[in-house]
Design a protein that fits this description.
Layout (H helix, E strand, L loop, with lengths): L12 E5 L6 H11 L4 E2 L3 E2 L14 E2 L2 H9 L3 E7 L3 E6 H9 L4 E4 L2 H10 L4 E6 L3 H11 L4 H15 L7 E4 L3 H12 L4
Parallel strand pairs: 1-7, 1-8, 2-7, 3-4, 8-9
Antiparallel strand pairs: 3-6, 5-6
Helix pairs in contact: 1-7
Length: 193
């Protein structure tokens, strides 16, 4: 197993985005299981850790002041204020370090974050993870059972906007099965077993 970039493809940043409930986290978890050395960026956040979360493993937990300093100094590839309260973003340093060493890097972020990364690093590869169909996306969201009706409708409205942005991406991977989608994403990243 190697997470080194293949000789025909130089190491670069791959950004994975897609609509809610499409399975981004599941595909990334499978990718990490198969390729434990693959660098997947850890976001920084100003929110407090939840029970069981470990600083540097789940998130980099920072103060609002530290986060603002990172933004001011250009140390964030992308960032956003979520739910009007806490800030989340992708620290640039660890991504740059991986790429400098010739190793690929992966970000799993939202559409707005992907747009910011493309502006900051135009050479980044944007991959859109899409459902096999709209009905399947709705079924997955409803099947999770983690949102009430109002929240599901809000997420589906956002998903419609996200689905309409597919043309902004360099590649599209259909998540019909986790195994196949993971295979395709690994090939796009340029990692081999």
């Amino acid at each position: 197993m190697s997470t080194e970039a293949s000789s025909t493809q130089s190491a670069r940043l791959t950004v994975l985005a897609g609509p809610t409930a499409v399975g981004k986290g599941t595909v990334v978890a499978e990718l990490r299981r198969r390729y434990p050395d693959l660098f997947v960026s850890i976001s920084a956040t100003t929110r407090n850790p939840r029970p069981g979360e470990v600083d540097g493993q789940h998130y980099h937990f920072v103060t609002h002041e530290q986060f603002d300093d990172m933004v001011t100094h250009g140390d964030m590839l992308e960032w956003a204020v979520v739910h009007g309260q806490n800030k989340y973003g992708t620290p640039r340093g660890p991504v740059d370090a991986e790429l400098k060493e010739g190793r690929p890097a992966l970000l799993e972020i939202d559409l707005d974050g992907a747009r910011q990364v493309k502006k900051a690093m135009p050479e980044a590869q944007l991959v859109f993870l899409a459902p096999p169909s709209w009905d399947e996306l709705v079924n997955r969201l409803v099947g999770r059972g983690t949102e009430n009706e109002e929240e599901r409708e809000r997420r589906l409205a956002t998903a419609r906007v996200e689905m309409n942005a597919v043309h902004e991406f360099d590649q599209v991977v259909i998540n019909d099965t986790v195994a196949r989608a993971t295979d395709e994403l690994a090939a796009l990243i340029g990692i081999t077993r």
